Amino acid sequence: MSSDQDHLKETDTEARFEFKKEEKSAFETGKGLTEETIRVISEDKDEPEWMLERRLRALKQFQQMPMPDGWPGAPDLSEVDIDQIVPYIRPDIETRGGADSWEDLPEEIQDTFDKLGIPEAEKNALSGVGAQYESEIVYQNMQEQWEEKGVIFCDMDKAVQEHEEIVKEHFMTKCVPPSDNKFAALHGAVWSGGSFVYVPEDTTVEMPVQAYFRMNSEGMGQFEHTLIIAEENSEVHYIEGCSAPKYSAFNLHSGGVEVFVGEGAHVQYSTVQNWSKNTYNLNTKRAIAEADGTMEWVSGSMGSKATMLYPATILKGPGATDNHITIAFAGEGQNIDTGAKVYHNAPDTKSTIESKSISKDGGRTNYRGLVHIADGAENSSTSVECDALMFDNDSTSDTMPYMEIQEQKVDVAHEATVGKIGDEDVFYLQSRGLDDDDAKQMIVAGFIEPITEELPIEYAVELNRLIELEMEGSLG
Amino acid sequence: MSTQVHANLTAEQVAQISEELGEPEWLLETRQDALAALEDLDMPDVIKTPGREWTNLDALDYETLVDPLDHAQEKDRVDAEGVDVLSWSEALDTHGDLIEEHFGSVVDPQRNYLTALSTALFSAGTVVYVPEGVDAEDVKIRTTMNSRSLFNYTLVVAEESSSVTILERQATGDDAKPVDEGRYYSGVVEAVAGENAHVQYGALQNLSEETYNFSVKRGHAGRYGTVNWIEGNIGSRLTKTSVETRLVGDSESQIVGAFFGHNDQHFDLGSRVWHEAENTTADLVTRGVLRDSARSVYEGVQDVGRDAWNTSSYQRENTLMLSDESEADASPKLIINNHDTEASHSATVGQVDEEDLFYMTSRGIDPEVAKNLLVEGFFVPVLEEVAVDELREDLQDLIAARLRE
After folding, report:
1. Is B331 close to A400, i.e. CB distance below 8 A?
2. Distance from the CA of B78 to the CA of which of A229, A440, B49, B212 falls in 20 to 30 A?
3. Greatest distance between any 2 Cα atoms in chain B
4. Range scoring the smallest mean pLDDT among A441-455, B203-217, B294-308
5. Could you give the count of Cα atoms lying within 13 Å of A66 in the half-sphere of its Cβ?
6. Spatial separation of the C-alpha atoms in residues B34 and A243, rounded to whole Å
7. Cβ(B258)–Cβ(B289) under 8 Å?
């Protein structure tokens, strides 16, 4: 670290600018993630020194850490060539705003939007084409409502500039340190974009805060950072609409989400993600809940080639609660390795995990979960329920829960079931006049209902529609 | 990797053990190969979560635990009509071919460091041979360990349309020489159930609490066959055990487990079943109680293969914690590769129900007695699954005795 600082002193701003220009082409062909790359990103964003230092420290950690390896049934990451990551960052900085036009999008993505029945203008926005403009308008409207209450909702790069002290205190310090895992470290080094949400004490944000357009407005969204801070007795529902698939040449998405749930506060984080099927989705999401705080994770994982994502909650204060609701759908060539982690570190804490997965056409879904109840977390209770539905014999579905219980006065239950789609159910629906596809879709819709009913209606509709599309096999 | 044992362990010792038992050349070679392989083999897999390994086997000092030529023990074998229950050397004399055919066919001698160690050093064992069409009840094997280390090997071969019920007990003898460093007991059980054959194997481990215990019990169930296991763990300082069935034909398996840990006992328990053929059924049930600073680590695996059409697979694991210093870890795993499957698993950890306790004490029952009754009641669903009366009663007695210590 000290060598970083020394280096920083030696390199004045002008020199770094010069360097940036000179090295421009080197980036496109250069191998590996280097200190210079990080400096350029930071410079480009006009970040304070401390952020650059954090990035550089994260980079070091990233370089020292091994790839996640040796997990039973984990996705194959051998194709994720770390040396190839950096060259992708550069064009990203240059082409904020995504593709130049609708026509530049891969056919698969265009197809999805068509099939979702989204109007042309909205399609452009959702896919990232001109989304910057659209998103600003969306934010502006929302801010008017909330500003009076002191709520802050802006993009993460802006937050570093305008709310420096809050960000400095919370950004990758207590919740997701870069040392957590290799891709958290990578994220810490190259992060860009994302959302910043701050809700002051005793404030309830009645309508969901949506970063729907936002996600696609910047090409750097692949390493976006979301920081949510809900102060005492506040309440907020944040929705990340990643339902528009990513289209860029990136094959790695490594986001970071940090949520601070203050005493008695209530935060819900919902996301429906549908990355393109060449994407490795390796995220780190974590929440810390203080006394009597409630954290809720609702997520639908549809796209990506491989996903490794286990949103975690640390129940730090007595009486804190965590609820996880997840659904994963793996089609051909997909390995969705996802689950939930909960650490009960205080008495009277509660958690529930409800996980549903569907696998089809050779897809693989894994539930990988951890419930840890620390010594002293008296009267804690947790219940884990995982259900898997399999469509055919080429698919795979694994359930790997881990439960570590160090406290006697607890109530821990885990349950999982796996089954094929019921022939009798299909027959019943067919005998009532539905065709085979419709019958299966209806059964699946029923299967995932506990998830969809937690989502605002437009997301629920979209999730259902996405699943229908997957089931028709009409998406690449 | 682990080379510490070699100071105390030589090819000559292995040859001597083999010679005492009157073994054929192939078996001596198998032993020597296992000995040579120790160098490169890893410890058995243990569950790992970030930052921690649930059982640390590398911490054991095998060099001080193992004394290859001291294997004092008493063995009682009770056979049933029509079935051969033989000591290792007797079996080699009369069923040499049978042993050569099946030895190591179910449990790979070089599966890991500890099985290889067992293969190299086992000095005692039992062969149970059930010829075609024979129904044998009440085969009993009782092993009393009197030495610092003991390596036991059991081979069960049940031919077509036969059935056998075997009850095995392991305990430490009252006059076992005292040891300071701890004892090491290792047991490997291989069971081969032919077409339409039924093997029921119950084991009750009550070794002294200075004993480190490693065991693998594994069966292959052929077409229309059944391999059922009952696994009771009461004794030992540390137990690492895995009870496994491969369902290779239209077959069934039940694995019933019960354990009760106290003081600083550590139980690392595995129940594993592989559905490899069509129309197989498995049922895994384990219940355990922990007290003091005892710790249990449970892993249950239901693996449904690509060709395992029409599979039914169920698993339940429940742990009751009676003290705050105890720790119970559980990981019931489902691995499903065929969609024509009905599978479920569940696990719970909890304490004695306060309301039940209140109800009983309000009826005038002493709180301690009430608690003991509830703990005994907790084991009932598992004990009900124990089809061998004698084993069930013994288990019940041991549980009751431990509760009233």
Report:
1. yes
2. B212
3. 70
4. A441-455
5. 4
6. 56
7. no
pTM here is 0.84
Per-residue confidence (pLDDT) for residue B39, from 0 to 100: 87
**CA contacts within 13 A on the Cβ side of A436:** 4
User: What's CA A31's distance to the chain center, in Å?
Assistant: 27
Q: Which residues contact A181 (CB under 8 A, 6 or more apart)?
A: A65, A68, A284
CA separation for the pair A191, A254 (Å, rounded): 8
Stronger pLDDT, A244 or B164, i.e. the higher one: B164
How many angstroms separate the CA atoms of A159 and A154, rounded? Answer: 7
Chain A interface test: which of B339, B351, B355 (most A C-beta within 10 Å) = B339
Instruction: Give Cα separations from A71 to A68, A75, A366, B50, B272 (angstroms).
Output: 8, 9, 11, 10, 18
- In this predicted structure, the answer to whether residue B239 has a pLDDT above a threshold of 60 is yes
Supply φ then ψ for residue A226, to 5 degrees. Answer: -120, 125
Element housing A328 (H / E) = strand A321-330
Q: What is the pLDDT of residues B356-376, one digit of tens each?
A: 999 999 999 999 999 999 999
**pLDDT for the residue numbered A102:** 57
Question: Which pair of structure tokens corresponds to residue B24?
Answer: 């054929």
Please determine, for residue B325, whether its predicted confidence score (pLDDT) is greater than 50.
yes
Separation CA B274–CA A185 (nearest Å): 38
B297 strand-pairing partners = B268, B329
CA distance B369 to A447: 46
User: Which has the closest alpha carbon to B131: B94, B100, B160, B167?
Assistant: B160
The helix/strand/coil state of A329 is strand
Cβ burial of B278 (10 Å; 0-12, 13-18, 19+) is: middle
Mean pLDDT of A100-117: 57
B274 contacts on A by Cβ (under 8 Å): none
Phi-psi map region of B37: left, alpha, beta (phi>0 left; psi -120 to 50 alpha): alpha
Q: How far is CA A288 from CA A231, A261, A271, B73, in A?
A: 12, 6, 18, 56
> Per mean pLDDT, which range of A142-146, B47-51, B117-121, B151-155 is the poorest?
A142-146
Strand partners, B213: B185, B239
A403 vs B325, B331, B340: nearest CB: B331
Residue A126 near residue A114 (C-beta atoms within 8 A)? no
Whether the CB of A420 is below 8 Å from some CB of chain B: the reply is yes
| 3 state DSSP class of A368 | strand
Q: Are B37 and B101 in contact (CB under 8 A)?
A: no
Q: Measured between alpha carbons, how far is B231 from B243 in angstroms, rounded to an integer? A: 8
Instruction: Give how far B55 is from chain A: nearest CA, Å.
Output: 13
Q: Inter-chain contact A419–B342, Cβ cutoff 8 Å? A: yes
Which chain B residues in 14-43 lie under 8 Å from chain A, judged by CB atoms? none
ipTM of the complex: 0.85
